[in-house]
Amino acid sequence: MSDKEVNEAANELAVANLGDTSEEEEEDEDYDEEDIMDTLPPVMKMRVNKLQELQDQKNRLMEEYVKERAMLEHKYATLSEPLYDARKDIIVGAKDDELKLAQGDEESDAIVGIPQFWVVAIGHLEVVGELVTESDVDCLEYLRDIKCEDFENGMGFTLKFFFAPNDYFTNEVLEKKYTIPNLLMDDEPVLQEVLGCDIDWKEGRNLCYKKVQKKQRAKRGPNAGQIRTVTKQERLDSFFHFFTPPKLPKMEEMDEEEADALEEAFDHDYDVAQSFRSHIIPNAVLWFTGEALDSEFDLGEGELEGAVVEGGNDNNSPFPAPVEGEENPECKQN
């Protein structure tokens, strides 16, 4: 085949791949790599096969890169751990005897650690702060520490929130686990699995749902006209919904609008997780002081006026309220 014929074949292939969106194109949705290769002249097929060999070599290099990066990330995470522990000790007041004014007064001596440290730090980062409501603030004052533990293979991470004993729930630690095979690569993250945890709310202190009694009148049957009282769970805005991932219904049960809403919910959930992992945890003091708002760490365009932003979620949330009589995986009552 002459060079001219090869060029003509390549042009025809390009036109076929970049053509208009006709009905014929829609009918050919199963057009795959093998079909393309079958249309190539032998000399082009040989060259494309060589490109594929190079791609395989590149893929093997990326596998080694991910392994080495995972080891490097683990190394420096281990080196950072004592610094994070020292930070926690200062925040919770374990270092108060060492860090006090030489000429202190009774009022300053009564301050334990740095009250509301995490509440203020979280509130300054918009994507997270907008989830926190006024009702959450008192509970979050018991937050002692936040940690992120990356998987040793570099394919995910676990966020851990450590709480002091409080009036809201019995958990000492709340966790959120993300499995992301391509976490250490530059590609769009692929969420393989997201796991939350149960929050063991104390009676009457559930910040996620409240019990509401409603009257119902039977419209038909032997009890027609009779009124009964039923108890339902009404969803409340709360940061603590973060510990229940969006629910994934069967695809055939979703229309396009619902699928878009679910995708947006997962995207936002992951943005919040990455905000903790990459911004709040490693740079907590900068978020507490507000320095991060004017630095490279700022994720949002707007500035927050207060330390805490009252959230607002619509009623079409993919986090459904629990059915009365069933345990909500997030907000179960003991």
UniProtKB/TrEMBL annotation:
Task: Tell me the segments the record calls region Disordered.
Answer: 1-38, 304-334
Compositionally biased intervals (Acidic residues)? 21-37
> Which family does the similarity line name?
Belongs to the nucleosome assembly protein (NAP) family.
Coiled-coil positions are 44-71
Q: Which InterPro entries match?
A: NAP-like_sf, NAP_family
Comp. bias (Low complexity)? 8-18
**Species this protein is from:** Leptocylindrus danicus
Q: Which GO terms describe its biological process?
A: nucleosome assembly
Instruction: State any GO CC term.
Output: nucleus
Descriptive protein name: Nucleosome assembly protein
Which key words tag this protein in UniProt?
Coiled coil
